[in-house]
Amino acid sequence: MKVAIIGTGYVGLVAGTCFAESGQDVTCIDVDEEKLQALRLGQIPIYEPGLAELVRRNLDAGRLHFTGELPAAVGPAQVVFIAVGTPEGETGRADLRYVLEAAEQVGRALTHYTVIVNKSTVPVGTADRVHAAIARNTRCAFDVVSNPEFLKEGAALRDFLKPDRVVIGTRSERARELMGELYAPFVGGENPLLYMDPCSAELTKYAANAMLATRISFMNDVAALCERVGADVEWVRQGLGADKRIGSAFLRPGIGYGGSCFPKDVKALMATAREVGMEFDLLRAVENTNTRQKRCLLTKAVKHFGDLSRRTFAIWGLAFKPRTDDMREAPAVELIEGLLGKGARVQCHDPVALESARRYFGDRVTYAPTCYAAAEGADGLFLVTEWNAFRHPDLKRLKATMRSPTLFDGRNAWDPQRAREEGFTYFGIGRTR
Ligand code: UDX
């Protein structure tokens, strides 16, 4: 099957590469010529484990192509994916400019019946707008399908190649058949292909992300309560997660959710509700808790040290989560800005996000080549991103290098008792052990 993918961002690049891996002939389209040149050499613009190798393998096999020529790629394709960005627009609603522009161009490029698939995260009703934008520009028959993407950064290939489910929103039998054929290698058994109408498919994506964000904020509120009543949230979490109806995923308290999806999608779902006269109060609370949570380590540090000026702090981890260099909405940004604002010095380390961090902090912080170098002379060490490399620190070495041995464990990744035995003052999230 000939497949065209518009947009070589996270979703477009991963989807294109995985479809090529399953044997399809895929052409990825982008407007950024510099990015395209790098991609043709197998150099990818993001950090995602395994992706560069898979891109190279499929380039070499001649199944994956990169081009700036949209009409030439869309014309012969049977399926065209729109996977361009939907940034946060005014009042929290997703900005559909790029999606609708792509749809107009697709319309002009069609040469025969084609299925146009919306992979970008878009508000309810967008499939109709995309349909209208294409219809204005073509006489060919076509169908628009809503097929939201649920992959996680850092595990993108596994999520795409073995998804929990694939959601296909369409009323057209012809489009159903084509989509079923395309996704057949990835689904089956416990991983179903779910067909529904486009509106339900669009809503499913937002509801999934908002539900996960809700679980996280719920646990962060439970953690705050634990600190006040003397319970330990790690025990409570295990007790909750063992209930099969609840399950253990996405129950980890921390310093708030970040990334390019949760904050944006929670806002977008609230905006959608508001447009139809409904206040999604629960999500307002989810957001408020997350805002508080992003500040909680700074609050603990101020309570412990008082004045932070003339203090030095080490930050371990900058990306919004491990296995990515993505710093969008990362809790590290707010923490570091808070520390700098209070006159503290900041020394940070992240296995892959130091370059991304430079765009945020320039030379206002020190970038250390190793985590121990970041801790040199520090009064406190903040664990912000739970990279595996940070999970078992050499506490003796840390104690010898820090000025005052104080740990702020933003991910409950360390053992408080061991830390205290080694002479550290330990602060976690909702921990009283
Ligand atoms: C998310 C969705 O999981 C994915 O399905 C969707 O396609 C895009 O948005 P992603 O943003 O890559 O994926 O990250 P994810 O692994 O879901 O983590 C989101 C945030 O939640 C991170 O900041 C993470 O630290 C936080 N989190 C996650 C917690 O604080 N506790 C948890 O238990 C799990």
UniProtKB/TrEMBL annotation:
UniProt xrefs under InterPro entries: 6-PGluconate_DH-like_C_sf, NAD(P)-bd_dom_sf, UDP-Glc/GDP-Man, UDP-Glc/GDP-Man_DH_C, UDP-Glc/GDP-Man_DH_C_sf, UDP-Glc/GDP-Man_DH_dimer, UDP-Glc/GDP-Man_DH_N, UDPglc_DH_bac
Catalytic function, reaction form: UDP-alpha-D-glucose + 2 NAD(+) + H2O = UDP-alpha-D-glucuronate + 2 NADH + 3 H(+)
Family to which the UniProt record says this protein belongs: Belongs to the UDP-glucose/GDP-mannose dehydrogenase family.
Any one Gene Ontology molecular-function term assigned to this protein's record: UDP-glucose 6-dehydrogenase activity
Described function: Catalyzes the conversion of UDP-glucose into UDP-glucuronate, one of the precursors of teichuronic acid.
Positions that bind substrate: F150, L151, K152, E153, K205, F250, L251, R252, P253, G254, G258, K321
TM annotation in the entry: none
BP terms from Gene Ontology: polysaccharide biosynthetic process; UDP-glucuronate biosynthetic process
The name this protein goes by in its record: UDP-glucose 6-dehydrogenase
Limits of the UDP-glucose/GDP-mannose dehydrogenase C-terminal domain: 314-416
Enzyme Commission numbers on file: 1.1.1.22
Keyword set includes Repressor: no
Pfam families to which the protein is assigned, alphabetical: UDPG_MGDP_dh, UDPG_MGDP_dh_C, UDPG_MGDP_dh_N
Active-site residues annotated for this sequence: C261
Keyword set, alphabetical order: NAD, Oxidoreductase
Annotated residues for binding of NAD(+): D30, K35, T86, T121, E153, K264, R328
Pathway this chain belongs to: Nucleotide-sugar biosynthesis; UDP-alpha-D-glucuronate biosynthesis; UDP-alpha-D-glucuronate from UDP-alpha-D-glucose: step 1/1
Species annotation: Melittangium boletus DSM 14713
